[in-house]
């Protein structure tokens, strides 16, 4: 709560009522954007902005870019059409789970699709497990005791485990990685060394009678050899299953999580869940009790943030815990984090009042707020989904501001595309999101995706808005779950 109040005071010192704010109040209604700034570079350019001073900071990058680990299989990244097709499936099923018109079993049950991942995703590298020659201490390992979650380091050795590259997912609860034995298929190939629990001195499988196993709820999947089994079905019907376990998680050299609970996956049903070989699993950041955020609540207060870079040529960051002190020129736009007991605790939702395009305000219809629920913040959905009427108005305003440029054929769900061949810079309409609490102007990379307007329409106005990761690019998104707030700070990566 203290963090929420501090952010709120900081926001109020730098913003006014969202109803009275136009995008033009923050400058001209258009900006000149070099097209080269939106294109992927051949080399990794590192950080555009100095990362925050926080002991739990860790680098974040996007898949299939020069800052990513190379794929050992040499598999090509999916086409834009394929990426958008997969993204639509994910959006459809998130909305299905949030619908009050279907029962829990139907909402969480498998769908017809067999793909849930897309390759425009944020990922981090962590270490899982430990090796054990001689005894050693936390200080000898350079581990700050205050940063160790879940008790002391124990009497055994805590030498490094195996590096695992995991996708950040704010819309799921159970973290997991692929575990030996993991035949391919049903598991997917990965560049990282497979995590082998028999090689870790700190690994333990939960027994079927343990309180942890009994409290798995919808993720429980029976018992095998007196070991607790889990199963997670993702929004499109794909799933992961295996043994629910615990081990040492090392986030960075100064931050460890003892007895970290996760799924030791032996099967990725549904075509390997569409994973690139760069990834070993998922780091779930949802609101459920199984997520990393809930497991570390006593130390980090259910607070985390991330900043997704504008393109895969740059590196962003992920922070567990409250951010460091911001400079006097930095401002968070703070909006309440909304909860609804009728919907899964997994999702983080905020109230999006309107969108401005070149100074023109488009209000979202009330039915999208009260009927379909508030806007869902999702780190894995790529394109933001809007109610049809609001999207039509946003599209009309954007097209009006882009009349100087040649239209191009639609790409998947994106129906407002342009032919920028020979164009070195674009006069781009400014686009901003109007929340309860303030206005957040989007970076150019959050407006155009592959030369198209990076918004799409829901099938009807009753479906909730989903705020995708393209619109979140370059913006630090701060989740203060216990304080009931989300903060947005522009131009931070």
From TrEMBL:
Transmembrane segments: none annotated. Residues 1-16 form the signal peptide. InterPro entries: Aspartic_peptidase_A1, PEPTIDASE_A1, Peptidase_aspartic_dom_sf, TAXi_C, TAXi_N. SUPFAM superfamilies: Acid proteases (SSF50630). Residues 149-489 form the Peptidase A1 domain. The active site is at 169, 378. Pfam families: TAXi_C, TAXi_N. Belongs to the peptidase A1 family. This is Peptidase A1 domain-containing protein.
């Amino acid at each position: 709560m203290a963090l929420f109040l501090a952010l709120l005071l900081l926001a109020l010192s730098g913003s006014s009522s969202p109803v009275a704010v136009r995008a033009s109040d923050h400058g001209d209604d258009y900006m000149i954007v070099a097209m080269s700034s939106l294109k992927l570079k051949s080399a990794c350019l590192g950080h555009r902005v100095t990362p925050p001073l926080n002991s739990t900071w860790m680098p974040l990058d996007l898949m299939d870019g020069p800052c990513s680990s190379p794929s050992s299989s040499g598999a090509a990244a999916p086409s834009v059409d394929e990426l958008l097709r997969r993204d639509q499936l994910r959006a459809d099923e998130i909305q299905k789970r949030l619908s009050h018109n279907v029962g829990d079993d139907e909402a969480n049950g498998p769908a017809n699709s067999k793909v849930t991942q897309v390759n425009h995703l944020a990922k981090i590298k962590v270490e899982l497990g430990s090796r054990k020659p001689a005894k050693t201490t936390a200080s000898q390992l350079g581990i700050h005791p205050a940063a160790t979650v879940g008790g002391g380091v124990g009497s055994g050795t805590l030498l490094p485990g195996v590096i695992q590259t995991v996708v950040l997912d704010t819309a799921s609860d159970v973290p997991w990685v692929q575990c030996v034995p993991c035949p391919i298929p049903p598991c997917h190939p990965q560049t990282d060394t497979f995590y082998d629990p028999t090689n870790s001195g700190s690994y333990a499988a939960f027994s079927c009678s343990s309180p942890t196993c009994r409290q798995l709820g919808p993720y429980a999947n029976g018992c095998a050899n007196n070991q607790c089994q889990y199963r997670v079905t993702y929004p499109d019907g794909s799933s992961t299953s295996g043994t629910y376990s615990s081990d040492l998680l090392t986030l960075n050299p100064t931050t460890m999580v003892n007895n970290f609970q996760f799924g030791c996956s032996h099967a990725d049903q549904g075509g390997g869940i569409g994973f690139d070989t760069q990834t070993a699993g998922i780091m779930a950041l949802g609101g459920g009790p199984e997520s990393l955020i809930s497991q570390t609540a006593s130390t980090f207060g259910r607070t985390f943030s991330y900043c997704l870079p504008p393109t895969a040529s740059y590196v962003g960051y992920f922070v567990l815990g409250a951010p460091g002190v911001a400079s006097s020129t930095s401002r968070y736009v703070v909006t309440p984090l909304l909860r609804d007991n009728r919907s899964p605790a997994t999702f983080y939702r905020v109230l999006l009042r309107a969108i401005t395009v070149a100074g023109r305000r488009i209000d979202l219809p009330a039915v999208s707020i009260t009927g379909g629920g508030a806007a869902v913040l999702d780190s894995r959905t790529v394109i933001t989904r809007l109610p049809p009427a609001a999207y039509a108005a946003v599209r009309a305003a954007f097209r009006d501001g882009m009349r100087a440029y040649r239209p191009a054929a639609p790409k998947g769900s994106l129906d407002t595309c342009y032919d920028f061949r020979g164009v070195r810079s674009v006069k781009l309409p400014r686009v901003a999101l109007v929340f309860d609490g303030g206005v957040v102007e989007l970076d150019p990379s959050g407006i155009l995706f592959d030369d198209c307007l990076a918004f799409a329409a829901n099938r009807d106005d009753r479906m909730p808005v989903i705020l995708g990761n393209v619109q979140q690019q370059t913006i630090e998104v701060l989740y203060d779950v216990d304080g009931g707030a989300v903060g947005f700070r522009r131009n931070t990566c």
